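Dear colleagues,

As part of the handover before I leave the project, I'm documenting each prediction I ran so the next person doesn't have to rerun anything. This entry is a single chain, and its sequence is reproduced below.
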Amino acid sequence: MTESRKSNLNLEQNVTPNEPLDLDDLLPVLGEFGCYQKLLLWFICLPACIPCGFCAFNQLFMTDTPDDFWCNVPQLSEFNLTEEQIRNLAIPSTVENGVMQHSKCARYAIDWENLFNISDPDSIDLQPNISWPTESCRNGWVYNKTHVTSSIVIDFDLVCDHDIYPTIGLSALNVGGPIGVYVFGMLNDRAGRRIAYFACLATLIAGSLITAASVNFWMWCFSRVIVGLTIPAVYQIPFIIALELVGPDYRSFVTVMTCTFYTFGIMMLAGVTYLVPNWVEMCLYTSTPFILYFLYLFIMPESPRWLLAQGKFEEALNILEVMARVNGKKLPNSFRIKLHERVEADKMRVKENVKSLNSFDLCRTPNMRLKTLLITLNWFANETVYLGLSYYGPSLGDDQHLSFFLSSVVEIPSYLCCWFIMDSWGRRWPLCLLMILSGIFSIITVLVPDEATLETLIIFLVSKTMISASYLIIYPFAGELYPTSVRGVGIGTSSYVGGLGLTVIPFINYLGKENLRLPLVVMGFISIFGGITGLRLPETLHHRLPQTLEEGEEFGKEWDLQDCFRCIPIRPQPSNDASYENIDNLPPELELHTLGSILMEPDGMTETEQTPLDARQRRPSMRHLVRQASIINTQKAEGAMKLTYWF
């Protein structure tokens, strides 16, 4: 009997009106990663992730500050004086680091027309009197545009007393993120993935157009909040669409490829900002081309999981039939016939039995409370340091565009390394070790001489590589530690609290104006502290994932110092606990038809031991042994997939 025939028979046996619908049972029949999914991934979902990287970091190049500037003195422009003569005459000089330099924020408070005879320019004494009174700049500034030809700093005079304004603008961008995740998250669940994505994309483009049209700083700052609403939602939605259409064994691949395309977008941004120095044009070039993405309206499908959860069966069947046809498969008749009954039965069962859980339920018991605190702390440290180093990259080295490009390139090998080490060394030790080493490399930059810019850049890149790797680990690690019943709530809570650090990190980077390495030291200590505290978390590799809050409370409760210092996780003995998701203990192709333990008889035969749990109907997805490293199975009450990040 062919494999397709077997899958069809298994599906027909599994499809009963009393069980909730699980699309993962159908994907082996239609193709878990067939031609349809490949076309969708490579030509729609992955390119759709690029706008997030462009619009999240293009702001760094809008706020460049020229190396040299001084007060504008319009009265002296009436005299036949060169720019250098005006500067020497009207701007006081001070000694900084043993070098005589003109002041950037002060000028002599002199009425130049009364001091000099405008009709006799030859009578002007070009030697200033150091006893003259000084004042702050009242008529703007003159900028040396040798290296920085255009920025909002030049256009809006954001220097001296206003030099913190670009930092406020960067913080405003990050303020919009948590709000946007909530708003577009609700839209994502209620209106569908397609509508949510194109609404998010339209918001991003509208915010970018307002940015380009800004005539003052506060208008520009407001526009950045609008753009911030779409970050990271504009990245997550196409990722979810792709994730919900592939089988469990391919979700880790989709995750890595999504992160890689996001990084490719950041790398391309370095080239665009180098070729287009004007900040208004650069803003338009990094946003308006994505208007073409609205052509996806004609080809991007809605998620069939969401359609099934909403009871839109005809639309879901149309998409699944197209998938089957493109993949060279056939949609089973049993699925067509019993689809409506199963979804309706699933909705009734949810309404009767499922209790809504919230963030407070995570803190009701001591072990879950401790794990929630440590996960959130690690999330905060990871996200803050990762984004902080990404923002700080252009400040290091002799060429900001090259430094930013290199800080993006080093993320790719970190993703590939994580893919392998997590299945060998687990999650806890790689996560904590990478965070600690990243912090150490950030801190030791203080030992490098000020003039050693190349050495500082190299140490920074090593630190960025390690924090990028740990940042990728925290998502699946947190998902495995939270019980299935509250996994979506737990990850949402930790990511929201962690996102609060993004509003603070621009001000930490602002400290670099006085001391270039001070922000690296601060971020280094944050990373080390997060890495050390993370050692208290239990390892999840080779362990069955908790399903309920009660099981989550027991998971890791017997933790001791021996567990803390164990680098290579020990594979536990198979357990008879039927309420956990099974993983590597048994062959992945084996299929569970009951929830009893599978006992091996001396003669090599197996028999199923009946338990009181056998009388209960279980989800079809629980019948299959799944590999923990590649899937975390979570479902919302309505049946829609909730978890965003998979490994």
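Confidence is low (pLDDT under 50) at residues 1-20, 350-354, 575-647. Strands lie at 69-71, 93-96, 99-102, 106-108, 134-136, 141-143, 598-600, 606-608.

All the best with the project,
I.
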